[in-house]
Amino acid sequence: MTSPSSRPVQAHLLATEFAAVRSQTLALAAPLSEADCQPQSMPDTSPTKWHLAHVTWFFETFILERFEPQFEPFNPAFRVLFNSYYQTVGEQHPRPQRGLITRPDLAEVKAYRADVDRRMVSLLQGSVDTDLAELLTLGLHHEQQHQELLLTDIKHLLAQNPLQPVYSAHWPLCSVTSVPLTWVAFEGGVVDNGHAGEGFAFDNESPRHNVLLQPYALSNRLVTHGEWVEFMQSGGYQDPRWWMSAGWEWVQSQRIAAPLYWLADGAGGWTTFTLHGRAPVDPHTPVCHVNWFEADAYARWRAVRDQLPIRLPTEAEWEHAAQSPGADWHIPGNFQDNRALHPLPLTRHQAGQLQQMGGDVWEWTASSYLPYPGYRAWAGAVGEYNGKFMVNQMVLRGGSCATPRSHIRTSYRNFFPTDARWQFSGVRLARDA
Fold first, then answer.
1. CA–CA separation, 45 and 157 (whole Å)
2. Are 264 and 310 in contact (CB under 8 A)?
3. Mean pLDDT of the chain
4. Is pLDDT above 70 for 9?
5. Which among 144, 159, 174 is the end of a domain?
6. Domain span at residue 255?
């Protein structure tokens, strides 16, 4: 693996980062019982136990197997059981059947983690070359991705339980005043897009390249639950005018009438399931758990309602705006580190400033997930990490309340199919200037 994002090798810093990331994953799993860690609620999710094992498999397979003297696997069967999609490594257990892997049990998976951690720490006490450092850094960011997936997947699982179990008893919301939706304009022109080359980045963020942007504007904040209720009350889920053909087919076939996890409360209002239990929908919080079909339909409805050329932003517009002096990207956002694990409302109005650009919810864009001009996948098995998924996906930007802060940057490209909504995904509007 070679990457333009390589950095000087400092073994002690890598060892510190390794310990911190690995400890955080276990901390996220700590509130769960062994029974919680076993099931798989749908094919797109994975059991917590599988996440704990798979990220360990990554370090064992791509680092220890290559760099550890006299390497021996912890358990040869794990090479297949916990391989996700790396064809060049070998066979994989079918993804929809991960919840059927009752053995190894959770204790053995934790023993697997402890064994690999011990061997990784020993490895980092020796000479660390650039290839090892790059693979280790990739492995840490890979584990941070799975930290977010662990949270979104366990939320989906717990939501299937009629007892509405609580993952975290802490409830983060407070009373706030409404912040009006306004527009922040940008002149456009030829701008730079993509990773600038400092620090780690995935291969899909490169190479940096020029993009021509027409004048545009972004909404100062995210679309809220209250605004989404207006869309619903106006018949948004019943009117085919707002929907792409495939989206309308999805609405009809799945009988969709509200965002994921919403239930009518019987008194004309709505509740939603959160990692803190079921709670009333707060009108000021960013709407989340909507898919691209829903986000696009809302933008089309809003364009007609407001008589403005409203749409979803392109990913190039989003990145350009996020890097502007008027964005709040430099302000610590509502990421996983904040421990809210739920989108938060704004507590103040910053006139002329883009707010909520980092954290809270991943923001759907109008851009298909495609390679940048001149893109080249990394060499070796890790080259399968991103490139082979560049079809039938849409790009999201910004991170969410389940994303680790140190994992995200303005050039980060997340991607999901148009019907996916179990992630913390929401909406920021754009318009032609």
1. 9
2. no
3. 94
4. no
5. 159
6. 183-432
